[in-house]
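From the shared-data thread, chain only:
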Amino acid sequence: MEQYIVTGMSCAACSARVEKAVSGVPGVTACSVSLLTNSMGVEGTASPEAIVSAVEKAGYGAKPKESEPGASGRSLAAEEDALTDRETPVLRRRLIASLGFLAVLMYFSMGHTMFGWPIPSFLEGNHVAHGLIQLLLAAAVMVINQKFFVNGFRGLLHGAPNMDTLVSMGSAAAFVYSTAVLFLMTAKDSAEERMALMHEFYFESAAMILALITVGKMLEVRSKGKTTDALRSLMALAPKTASVERGGEEVTVPVESVRKGDIFLVRPGDSIPVDGVVLSGESAVNEAALTGESIPVDKAPGDTVSAATVNQSGFLRCEASRVGEDTTLSQIIRMVSDAAATKAPIARIADKVSGIFVPTVIGIAVLTVAVWLLLGQSVGFALARGISVLVISCPCALGLATPVAIMAGSGVGAKNGILFKTSAALEECGRIQIVALDKTGTVTRGEPEVTGLYPAPGVSEDELLTAAAAIEQKSEHPLARAVLRKAREKDLALPDPEDFRALPGNGLEGKVGGVRIVGGSGWFIGSLPGAELTGEMKTLPDSLSEEGKTPLFFAREENGGWRVLGVIAAADAIREDSAAAIEELHGMGVRTVLLTGDNEKTARAVARQAGIAPEDVAAGVLPDGKEAVIRSLCEKGKTAMVGDGINDAPALTRADVGIAVGAGTDVAVDAGDVVLMKNSLRDASAAIRLSRAALRIIHENLFWAFFYNCIGIPLAAGVFIGITGWQMNPMFGAAAMSLSSFCVVTNALRLNLVKIHDPSKDRKMKNAVTGRLIEASPAAESNNTTEKGDLNMKKVMKIEGMMCPHCEARVKKALEAIDGVTSAAPSHEKNEAVLELSKPVPDALLTAAVTDAGYEVKGIQ
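Structure, as C-alpha cells:
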C-alpha cells in the first residue's frame, strides 16, 4: 500500500470526495482516505502523478509520503512528520485574532443595544455608523477565517460541498442579509425606524459562527492528536544516534547512517539503535517497548536484538541486520499507520451518509427559509432558521466516529504487543464467537520435554538415558532434542553413534560401542526378535497416551536377539497461561476448539489440562484439514484461528480473523490479520477484549453523530416552535456543531483507559452453537458437561451433491474413517447420511470430511 498526505480536507464529505476521485483512476484497485491522519492509502499500479492529479482535480492537495534515499518504503522520519501537529498553532493564532475583533463587535451589538453599555458620544443615536462599525468588525473576523470561505466555495464549485461550505454559507448569508439591512436603514428618515432595523442585524452571528467553529476545530485537532499519542510514543523510542566501529575506531553517527553489516556497540542503559545479531558480550535486554513484556530477555552471542529495546546490564557488540524502515520498530509503526489508513466495514454507512449529507442539509436550509416565508414570517426570522440549519449540521462527527476509535485502539494494541493489520481486523476481532486454537506452539510450548524415565528390570535410568541419547544425537526430531536436553541436565557422557539411520514410520537405529541400539514405537520394538513387551512395558503406552505423553521405546541387541531397555516419556507441556487464557475466552462467551495433528488421546489430554471441552477437540487433522475445519466453523459463527503463522497459514487465511502468535521480531507475518508479538495466548483474549471496547466506542460515536443531527437539524429549522416555543439562535447552533465533533473524539480517547488484560469486566455472550451462556470457569466441569447436539449417539447429516451409489460410497468411506463413527448410511435420494457414533465427534470434523470428499453439508441434526 502506497501512502499519501492529503491537504484541504475538513470533513467526511471531503474524504469521500477524494476517495471517489482516486478510485476512478485507471490502475487503482483500492483506496482508503483517513480524515483523522489526513492520509490516503492506495493499492494498484497507477502512478503517483496520476493519483496526485486526481486529488487536485477534486479540489484538494496530495503528495506521497517521503522515503529515505535508497529505501524501498516510508521512513520513520516520514511517519513522524506525517503526525506532526501543524494545525493547532495556526488555529490558535486565528482564534486569538478573531476573539479580539469579536469582543469589540459583541460590545457594540449586544452590550450597548441590550444592556445600555456606554459608547463614544459621536455614535450615540447614529444607527448607521453603529451598523457600519459592526460590518467592519464582522468583515475583519471573516477575513481572518477566510480559509472557511476558500475551501467551502471551492468545494461547491467542484460539485463537492463540505463542512466548510455549510459554515461559509451560513456566515455569508448572515453578513449579506445584515449588509442589506444596513443599506435599507440609510433610506429611513426617522430614528425609530432605524432603531427597529438594528434588531435585524446578524453581524455578530456571522462572526461568532466562525469563531465558535474555530474553537471546535482546535479542540478537535488537539483531541485527534491524542489518539495518535501511542504511535508517537513508539516513534520517540527510536534512538537518534548510534556508536559504530569505523576504521577500527568507535564513532557516534546519526542512526540513519547505519547500514546493514555495520558493527555497533551498546553500553548498559543505552537503547539499541537498529536490529542486529550479538557478536560478543552478554546482557539482559528490556523488550517491553516492542512486546509489552516487562521481564528482560537474556542475550548472548548469536541472539538477535531489536531497535528501541534497552540494554540493561552488559556490554554488547553487534552486527546490524535490519536498518531504516526494515527494523522491527519501523514495521510496527508502519503496520499501525496502515491500519489507520484502511476503512473499517462499520464506517461504510457513515461514508454513504456523508456523501450526500452536505447537499441534503443545504436543501433543508433552503426549504426551511421558504416554508417560514410562506407561513408569513419576516425575512430575518426565516433566514435565521436557515442559517441555524446550516451551522448546526455536523458531517465531521459522522466522519470521525470510526477512525478516531480505530487509531486509538490500534495504538493501545501496539503498546501491548498486539498489532492489527487493518481496521477491518480490529472490528471483526470484536465480533468473534469461536476461537480455534492450534495445539503445538500455541496452547503448548511447541518444544517437547522428557517427563519420565521407565527403565526395564535390571536397567538403570542413566543406562537407559545414555543409550537413547547417544543415537538421538544424529536425529533432527523434536523428541530427540528433548532426550538430549535431559541427558545434558544429568551431565551424562554420550558416545558418538555409528551407522546411524532413520527407519521411516518406525524409529531409528545406530551402533554405540559396536552394539546396535534401536528406538521407536511400542509396536515396532515389540516386533523385534526376543523383545517381547510384558508387564508394565505392555500397559505403559496406553496410560502415557491418556496423559497426553508420547512413549519412546528403546532396545539393545544382545546374544542374537533384542533386549528392551525401557521407555522414555516425552510431552509437549501446555504454556503456563494457556488455561487462564481459555478461561478468559469462555468468560467472554467465546467457544474454544482445539485443532491438532496428534492422536485423539493426546489431544484430549491437552484439552483437559487447558480447560477445553472434549467434544471441541479435532484430532488427527493435517494442515489442509485444519482449513476445512475452519471453513465449517465459520458457518456456525465468526471464527478466529490462532496459530504460529507458518504451517497454519491456510487456516489463518480461511478464518474470519487470523491471529498469529509469537511473531517476536517477525511482525510481518503474512497470514495473520492480527499479530501477537509474544508467545502468550492471553494476548489473544486481550485482542478480543480491546476490539470489543473499540466497537462499543464506535457504536456510541455513531449513535451520537446520527442522534445529534437527527435532533439538531429539526430543532434549528424551528420544527418545535409550534409545540414548545423553542427556537435556536445561529450562534448556539455553531456552538453545538463545534462540541459534537469534540465529544466524538474525546469519547474515543477512553480506549486509552481500557485494561486489556483485566477480565473482571468481561461480558458473557451466547454461545454461537447452542445459544447457552458459557460460564467463566468451565475447566472443572468440561469432562462432564457437553454441548447439546454434540453428544447424540446418532446424527443425521444433510448433504448436497450426491448423485448416485458411487457418491454414497465415497461419503461413507470418508465418514467411517473418522474415529468414533461406527457406521454411516448415506442416501443420495434423501440427500442425507445417518451416522451411528460410539463417542462424541465434533460436527466440524464430520463436515470437514464430507467437504474434502467433494460434497456440501447443509446441516447436522
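The first helix runs from residue 12 to 23.
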